[in-house]
Specification:
With 95 residues, the chain is an all-alpha fold. The chain is 83% helix and 0% strand. The radius of gyration is 19 Å and the shape is elongated.
């Protein structure tokens, strides 16, 4: 099975995964912006540019934990919503 076959086969799963991953990143970046004025974002950007930056405090790491948490919640919630709609569509097709 090549990559294109896998993408077509797992299209719904990859859509749920990618939207939850991106949504979690947006929420975490927004929290960082409004609470700490983009401290964590600057720290990550300094790592990308391979520059030295001051260490960040524990509060920034606490904000960073919002990303995995929102990713997990988004994945579960979207899966539940789509499974209910998919089951309803299958039931309507049977009658």
């Amino acid at each position: 099975m090549n990559v294109m076959d896998m993408i077509c086969h797992f299209q719904r799963v990859l859509t749920i995964f990618n939207s939850a991953l991106y949504g979690g990143a947006v929420i975490t970046t927004g929290l960082d912006y409004f609470i700490e004025h983009s401290v964590m974002l600057q720290w990550v950007w300094d790592r990308v540019r391979v520059r030295e930056s001051p260490p960040i405090c524990w509060f920034s790491w606490a904000i960073a934990t919002a990303w995995p948490a929102t990713f997990i919640m988004g994945t579960k919630r979207t899966s539940l919503i789509l499974s209910k709609h998919a089951n309803a569509a299958v039931d309507q097709g049977k009658s």
